[in-house]
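User: What would this chain look like folded?
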Amino acid sequence: MIKKHNWPTAMWDAINQRTATPFAWGSNDCCLFVAHVVDAMTNGRFVQQLSERYTDHASALRYIASQGGIGPAVSEYLGQASRIRPQRGDVVLWNGEEGETLGLCVGLELAAMGPAGVVFVPKSLTLETWTI
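Assistant: Here's the prediction, encoded as structure tokens.
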């Protein structure tokens, strides 16, 4: 996967588009938020691919369970995760209030989907990293 030459701008534009969009399973959950940002940075098709896998809370939980968790589900698309310190633009797994949550490293913080829109949490919460 190759990042666009203007990927930092594309990353922030995609994050800002979701700043005040509430969490919604199947349309604006943590996985689709990250997919939206990665697609913007790379011309990927992750949103389309995930939208074919689940559409609501129940089907999302079934999909995650069928993959063995969020981490293995992400690895299906992005390859093996590592425990290296994430760099800006990398996809990360961390423990949020509801359990395992995907986010994106934006520097010293992680951007992730919260109940009312994008939230920023310390990068030190990272459990696994997928390099983009």
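The chain has one domain: 7-130. If you want, I can go into more detail on any region.
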